[in-house]
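Long-time lurker. I teach an intro course on protein structure, and each term I like to show students one example going from raw sequence to a predicted 3D structure in token notation. This year I'd like something fresh instead of my usual example. Would anyone be willing to generate the tokens for the chain below so I can use it in lecture? Attribution to the forum is fine with me.
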Amino acid sequence: MKFLVTGGTGFIGARVVVNLWERKIPVVVADLNLNIAWTKQIALLKHQHDPVALAEIQEQIDQTRFINLDVANKTQVNDVFLENPGITHVIHLAYLMSAEVEADHHRGASVNIVGMINMFDMVVDHQLTRLVFASSETIYGANHSAYGDENYAIKEDDFCSLDDHFYTYGVMKMLNEFTAQKYIKNKGVSIAAMRPPIVYGDGRMRGSVLWACEFATNPALGKKVSLPFSKDARDCWIYVDDVAEQFIRLALKPTLHHFAYNNGGHSVTADELMHTVRRIVPDAVYEFNESVPRTALVDRCDSSRLEEEIDFIPRSLEDGVRAQIEEARNRVLQPKD
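-- Reply from a regular --
Happy to contribute to a lecture. Here you go:
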């Protein structure tokens, strides 16, 4: 067994790689802009107080190949498989985020559409056991009101009209899912999609939701938080390490019962989020923008399908926030080389 993780030193990808190192599963890490130091730091800080685990992680790091890869270039993608024989599973996370897509639609389509199709072709051409890719809750549109009851948790088979969308990113994810199911039906391959909500944690460095890092990392470091929406805005949140665990479990399970899965998470208002942080950092300072009543995201997603499939329930919101705050503080205290 050997994994390829694309976008493997990004916000979620780095956590997937660390998780694979902890499982002692061989991994090839590919990214357009490799941040190897950041990925290593996550792993080493996590195990800094356990010399045995630290040595084992270092051994896994030393055996890992890191590759610069543009997934929009099919020749480059194919070469990864030719030059690294034995890859059996892929977790595909190489994608341009919403703001990047809107700034450059040509590049967005090259990476997010052509790049995804290139990966689907690799599943066929190299007879992979499974490809799991990141879809998004944005396929459900920009407003929970499209589903009627504000307390309704959206299920995987619920439909959203294009008229209810805001992000080009979300529509691209819809096309990815549609195309993937063509490959499954016509080529007999194993592909699965997960639809994360807002993924929070320390270390998010790009994208239109940097506040999903700042809301807890800033208070951890004694800084003010400015959230670009009302304190009453409701969203669904999940901790980054839990998403990584979900990706790997879904990739490893021999047989899957479905194609698409909601990741789940905790549906809370920004005010509830603030109070969760303040239970850990009592002097946290927040500012809200009350002229923006909500984010352009749905509020609740049902995760029962995925929980049943992989037998895993994400940690509580408070436990996730506590983990983020601890990591942010440890990172700052880490001696510089």
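Some talking points for your students: The longest helix spans residues 105-125. Residues 261 and 332 are 35 Å apart (CA to CA).
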